[in-house]
Recover the amino acids of this structure.
């Protein structure tokens, strides 16, 4: 194909075809890493939502390279990726693409009105304490739903320590081919992080570099991926302090900068001179007042601001620059009603402002109010959770409602039956509304219904969780061919189940296996269920499992996943192994082998091969 020459246009076409179009969705995953016999989650408090949690212990066991990889461990959750370190990574939940999912960092929404999605590669793994994935209803956030789901990334807090300083490091190596110029792949990536964590403060600074020059099979020959390099730096500062007996203050501040090439092998013919740079900076500040009045048990005020800048350089055309600003103020309260009733209400004002060489200058003010309640029976067995949010968007002059209703029934304390039904909307982004020659100012909101019913059983050494889910997404936005103009013409329907079993064989040994069946139907263009047309890229079958061995001095983790094939993606079997050796209380070393079988596969299609075998050696020193 001839070079298009317009880098920004190429990227929009690529991103929209991979992530924004309703007719295209990525694989479904069935996995929740369980080390302990039970996992408690704030997301499951006062909620019947379907929730998976990636704990801090799980994060340490896997030694994942990216936050997206951690999100992909949860049952029903996966991620799109266009390559290795630094490449764009967006979350997919039960087949719903990134624009239909909400990403939060410590309860603060990160998605911008510019493009409606968020690249998880901007969040470094080293600052993450745990991740909560809400696949139905509002979960603990209470104030909103999503057509797809919600990912809430919680960052680490400072704790009292005799060794407050830590240094973590890693070198990543690809298996070189026979040609001498590939020998540098042994030193393909390096990472260094320095952190201080003590009492109420935690601060981190670090970075990584990578050439991502791995070999891949293009179908006719073996090539080395080029122009995919990464130079990344990040810093964070978080304080969590109590001002007095009734008032506490939290502040989280994050900075991330990435200088990237453009992964080679694209059908659009991007050259080695093309590149991109991305900056993200944000602050989140919270005041919490305990018992301000007899009828209010807690009053919380949040103030947030996030700035993003993305720069694309096209050697054949012109530069493209996108500046995004997002600020919000929120006031919420927990009402003191009775032991049988809980109620959280709140009001939120947010401002999205975009200054873009392609989209222009646009702003969106959003005013919303929400209520989330819990109603409990006298014996404590039955709980009902209604939730409602109504938002007004200034630029579209429209009201956007979402609501959910859930129920939770507990039997004998170790068996829970839950059910949730929810409705949500997604408003069109500035890119969909105003991008030159590829927009539609008359777009309407996307709409979606979700429902699931599940049972969870927990015994001393065995736990089981099974869920049946259904999803209907209509009036969805997709880029029609051959014009590539967006329109509300997509309609898709999903029906599936998630099954997961975890067993503690002994104090040192545990295992887990999960399976997801996700049957999708593309109902666009008047198609019906009888036509039996599947949504592109949605894997019907996914199996994942893991074995964990933990001893006094070392931990070993062996994991595998089978990704079923689709009409556009081949099936794949992936095996990973990692191990940690604790040399001393202040020194630990680890080794990880990713894609042990050297499987050739793609997560999105379109010429984005994923890496083969990669060996990573690293460690952590505490001072």
């Amino acid at each position: 194909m001839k070079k298009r020459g317009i880098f920004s246009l190429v990227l929009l076409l690529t991103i929209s075809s991979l992530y924004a179009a309703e007719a295209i969705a990525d694989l479904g995953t069935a996995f929740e890493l369980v080390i302990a016999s039970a996992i408690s989650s704030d997301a499951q408090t006062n909620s019947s939502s379907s929730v998976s949690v990636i704990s801090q212990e799980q994060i340490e066991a896997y030694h994942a390279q990216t936050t997206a990889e951690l999100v992909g461990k949860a049952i029903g959750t996966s991620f799109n990726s266009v390559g290795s370190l630094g490449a764009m990574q967006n979350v997919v939940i039960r087949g719903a693409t990134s624009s239909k999912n909400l990403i939060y960092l410590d309860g603060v929404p990160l998605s911008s009105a510019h493009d409606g999605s968020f690249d998880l590669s901007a969040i470094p793994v080293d600052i993450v304490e745990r991740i909560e994935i809400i696949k139905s209803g509002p979960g603990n956030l209470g104030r909103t739903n999503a057509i797809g789901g919600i990912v809430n990334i919680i960052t680490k807090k400072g704790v009292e320590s005799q060794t407050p300083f830590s240094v973590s490091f890693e070198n990543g190596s690809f298996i070189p081919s026979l040609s001498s110029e590939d020998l540098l792949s042994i030193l393909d990536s390096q990472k260094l992080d320095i952190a201080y964590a003590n009492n109420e403060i935690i601060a981190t600074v670090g970075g990584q570099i990578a050439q991502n020059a791995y070999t891949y099979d293009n179908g006719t020959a073996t090539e080395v991926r080029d122009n995919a390099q990464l130079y990344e730096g990040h810093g964070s500062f978080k304080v969590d302090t109590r001002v007095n007996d009734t008032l506490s203050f939290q502040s989280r501040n994050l900075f991330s900068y990435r200088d990237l090439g453009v992964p080679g092998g694209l059908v659009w013919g991007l050259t080695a001179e093309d590149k991109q740079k991305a900056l993200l900076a944000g602050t989140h500040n919270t005041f919490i007042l305990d018992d301000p009045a007899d009828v209010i048990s807690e009053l919380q005020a949040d103030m947030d601001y996030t700035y993003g800048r993305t720069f694309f350089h096209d050697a054949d055309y012109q530069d493209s620059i996108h500046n995004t600003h997002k600020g919000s103020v929120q006031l919420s309260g927990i009402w003191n009603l009775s032991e049988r009733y809980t109620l959280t209400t709140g009001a939120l004002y947010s401002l999205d402002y975009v200054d873009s060489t392609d989209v222009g200058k646009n702003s969106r003010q959003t005013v919303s109010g929400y209520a989330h309640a819990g109603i409990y029976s006298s014996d404590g067995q039955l709980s009902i959770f209604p939730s409602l949010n109504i938002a007004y968007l200034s630029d579209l002059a429209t009201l956007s409602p979402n609501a959910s209703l859930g129920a939770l029934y507990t039997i004998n304390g170790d068996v829970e039956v839950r059910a949730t039904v929810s409705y949500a909307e997604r408003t069109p982004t500035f890119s969909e509304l105003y991008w030159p020659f590829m927009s539609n100012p008359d777009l309407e909101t996307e709409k979606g219904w979700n429902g699931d019913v599940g049972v969870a059983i927990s015994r001393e050494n065995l736990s089981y969780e099974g869920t049946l889910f259904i999803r209907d997404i209509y009036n969805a936005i997709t880029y029609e061919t051959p014009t590539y103009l967006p329109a509300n013409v997509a309609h898709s329907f999903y029906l599936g189940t998630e099954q997961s079993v975890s067993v503690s064989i002994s104090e040192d040994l545990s295992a887990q296996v999960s399976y997801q069946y996700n049957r999708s139907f593309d109902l666009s263009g008047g198609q019906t269920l009888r036509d039996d047309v599947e949504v592109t890229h949605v894997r019907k079958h996914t199996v994942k499992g893991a074995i964990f061995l933990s001893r006094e001095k070392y931990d070993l983790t062996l994991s595998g996943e089978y990704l079923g094939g689709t009409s556009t993606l081949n099936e794949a079997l992936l095996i990973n192994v990692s191990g940690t050796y604790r040399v001393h209380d202040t020194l630990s070393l680890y080794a990880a082998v990713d894609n042990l079988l050297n499987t050739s596969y793609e997560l999105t299609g379109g010429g984005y091969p994923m890496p083969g075998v990669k060996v990573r050696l690293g460690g952590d020193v505490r001072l």
About this structure: The first strand starts at residue 51 and ends at 54. Residues 1-45 have pLDDT under 50 and may be disordered. Residues 260 and 509 are 41 Å apart (CA to CA). The helical segments are 7-20, 56-62, 67-71, 430-434.
